[in-house]
């Protein structure tokens, strides 16, 4: 399927999705978010895809929501259309793992989109920020919520109140990103991580995603119970038998997702 604002390549069980509005540093407009949620939903349904990498260009993952598109809207318009709500929720519902590979600017909605993914690999030139305060607004898709859970109150307040950018080293120190790699190695590194995930049982990777996300939604006690039951339930799969047998027989496991 041909898109106007994103490019999708399927490479060896990994869907590589690139945001592609270079003229606007990949600013998120309605077309881009619509195409992105559609492409990710399609990748989630496609049996050949086992993991997804979401990236932008070297200069920008995404410089935020499209200010030109939003600037003249009224409260009633953004409220009635629930600006970005349905599309972001569709992305949150994707069950296959999504890695955000961030190079350059990830600002405002761009930073928030990266945080919706399951983990972030950053290039050395990455810059994260929630500069909405400079526009007289605040973050709207997780910049005050997810960012606070990633980096804690003090840094989240700092970023949201001052609008300053965080570089890749600070983002790694703060727990916002899982690793930082030299800029030219970003895509190879993210694709390698995705291929590693693609080798696992797809049932187990979905359960990992559900379980880690549960940590953000519930108490520790309930989360631990959810995790233990999830662990127990995987004993109903052939992949558990295969994974453990392969270990004992000192060979590679051949998972079949059942
Ligand atoms: N929206 C629209 N166009 C943009 C955006 C954007 N967010 N960011 C950059 N562009 C455009 C510029 O207008 C410019 O286009 P043109 O040449 O036609 O004027 C082109 O991209 C290149 O940008 P610059 O010339 O500014 O490039 P620089 O290298 O000088 O600067 C920056 C790069 C620092 C990234 C700068 O472009 C910038 O500050 N961008 C805006 C960042 C920002 O404020 N982001 C937050 C936007 S608001 C938001 O994301 C809210 C999300 C929540 C939605 C809630 C829904 C519920």
TrEMBL record:
Pfam families: ECH_1. SUPFAM superfamilies: ClpP/crotonase. Keywords: Fatty acid metabolism, Lipid metabolism, Lyase. InterPro entries: ClpP/crotonase-like_dom_sf, Enoyl-CoA_hyd/isom_CS, Enoyl-CoA_hydra/iso, Enoyl-CoA_hydra_C. Coiled coil: none annotated. Its EC number is 4.2.1.17. The keyword ATP-binding does not apply. The keyword Coiled coil does not apply. GO terms for biological process: fatty acid beta-oxidation. It catalyses: a 4-saturated-(3S)-3-hydroxyacyl-CoA = a (3E)-enoyl-CoA + H2O; a (3S)-3-hydroxyacyl-CoA = a (2E)-enoyl-CoA + H2O. One of its GO terms (molecular function) is enoyl-CoA hydratase activity. Could possibly oxidize fatty acids using specific components. Belongs to the enoyl-CoA hydratase/isomerase family. This is enoyl-CoA hydratase. It comes from Paracoccus seriniphilus.
């Amino acid at each position: 399927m041909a898109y106007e604002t994103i490019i999708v390549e399927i490479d060896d069980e990994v869907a590589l999705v690139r945001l592609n509005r270079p003229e606007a540093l990949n600013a998120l407009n309605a077309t881009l978010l619509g195409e992105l949620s559609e492409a990710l939903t399609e990748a989630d349904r496609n049996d050949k895809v086992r993991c997804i990498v979401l990236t932008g260009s070297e200069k920008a993952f995404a410089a935020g929501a499209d200010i030109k598109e939003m600037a003249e809207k009224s409260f009633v318009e953004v409220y009635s259309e629930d600006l970005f709500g349905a599309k972001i929720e569709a992305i949150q519902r994707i069950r296959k793992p999504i890695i955000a590979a961030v190079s350059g600017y990830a600002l405002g909605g761009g930073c928030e989109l990266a945080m919706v993914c399951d983990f972030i690999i950053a290039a050395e030139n990455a810059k994260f920020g929630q500069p909405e305060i400079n526009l007289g607004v605040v973050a709207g898709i997780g910049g005050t919520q997810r960012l606070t859970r990633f980096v804690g109150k003090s840094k989240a307040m700092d970023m949201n109140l001052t609008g300053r950018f965080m570089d890749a080293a600070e983002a790694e120190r703060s727990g916002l990103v899982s690793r930082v790699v030299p800029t030219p190695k970003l895509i190879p590194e993210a694709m390698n991580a995705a291929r590693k995930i693609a080798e696992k049982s797809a049932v187990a990777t979905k359960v990992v995603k559900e379980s880690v996300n549960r940590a953000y939604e519930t108490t520790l006690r309930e989360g631990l119970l959810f995790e233990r039951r999830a662990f127990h339930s995987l004993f109903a799969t052939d992949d558990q038998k295969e994974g453990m047998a392969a270990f004992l027989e000192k060979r590679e496991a051949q998972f079949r997702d059942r």
